[in-house]
């Protein structure tokens, strides 16, 4: 009889063997190595997707990170400073690393190989976290209970031979848990169908514009050429070849290398029609279906998927300041969740390991945490503060002033230890203090 602690079932993730990729995807174009190529094409070629990713990366690169002390002791402060030094001492900058981590949004996951080094101070630090491309994934190594043991990588620089990277060396960031799949789930998965139709509508629109600018070529030929084509005798071989040349002409005629055309006259010397005529047919730019409107609708659907529809305000549609503020606030909340997920993975699988390697007591382990992703609205914050003070809910004091200054990125108060600290200084006193400071010492 199985014990309560025994695992009986499984996650249900689809894979074949202990060395294989995740085969959960039902769409054949998004399975295995092909999926990474498709997601790369979408990210590289679609303007809405590319613009959304650029905004996400630029916003996240601006978020400040810092080491959070475990407690208020001097020892905890020391280990927090060491963690900061470990990160600043890496071969790549932290902002570049976070930018690479955000590739998980495009592919569903992002893997990095952890490389350590012995520092000059005798401590073990990080040389860096080096990305292992999603397109280089060959297979995953699986253990018991759908546990991932490591990653097999296949790249040309490794002489075309798969290289195994154990899980202990990897740092994997995912968009979501998704039944424990190491490949997560790409943010582009929900828009694949939309992008598929958008790509084709854009191609049809370009073809339609090209045809409208020059017109659709139409060639009229004598009926005898068609009769010759229906009667394939040696005597009609010349007329059949002539008809084929006209068919080729009408298919290839466009305003580039076939700018000029040598064509039979429409009337003969006797003034009678020859049966030949070349003309261009154009719709005048009108369409039974507004392709441009359909394209814009699909682009909006893609923007909704990324919470970046505020990009389109003022371009095709009008929007109020309040609407823009709500949209950007929702976008910031979404990115906040993304950064929070990154924080948890990094602290659990990188910071914990480096602290253990250096023998730091567990109760002194710091955490690497992000700051605010969105700067406080100055007007809104000021109005709220005034309303709270006037309503008697809060009372102004030095601590509240420090909080307000920090929120608004204002300079900190001068803490000189004299009586009246925190009070406003008169312009006369400030001017006198400045003049004294500038006087040269004897």
Low-confidence stretches: 318-324, 418-442
Cα gyration radius (Å):
34 Å
Which range does the strand content fall in? 5-15%
Give the ordered list of helices and strands: EHHEHHHEEEEEEHEHHEHHEHHH
Count of helical regions:
13
- The whole-number mean of residue pLDDT values reads 82
The major pleated sheet works out as: 4 strands, antiparallel
Major sheet strand order: 1-5-6-7
Molecular shape? elongated
Helix residue percentage: 40-55%
Number of strands: 11
Structural class: alpha+beta
Intertermini distance: 92 Å
Task: Give me some keywords for this one.
442 residues, alpha+beta, 4-stranded antiparallel beta sheet, 13 helices, 43% helix, 14% strand
Give a brief description:
With 442 residues, the protein is of the alpha+beta class. The chain has a four-stranded antiparallel beta sheet, with no helix packed on it. Strands 4-3-8 form a three-stranded antiparallel beta sheet.
Describe the structure.
This protein has helices spanning 32-45, 47-61, 74-88, 94-101, 103-107, 192-214, 223-230, 237-252, 291-306, 321-357, 378-390, 398-407, 427-438, and strands at residues 19-20, 65-68, 109-118, 124-132, 137-142, 148-153, 163-166, 170-174, 216-220, 277-281, 367-370. It is of the alpha+beta class. The strands form four sheets. Strands 1-5-6-7 form a four-stranded antiparallel sheet, with no helix packed on it. The protein has a three-stranded antiparallel sheet with strand order 4-3-8. A two-stranded antiparallel ribbon has the order 2-11. Strand 5 (137-142) and strand 6 (148-153) form a beta hairpin. The longest helix is centred in the C-terminal third of the chain and has 37 residues, at 321-357. Mean pLDDT is 82; it is low at 318-324 and 418-442.
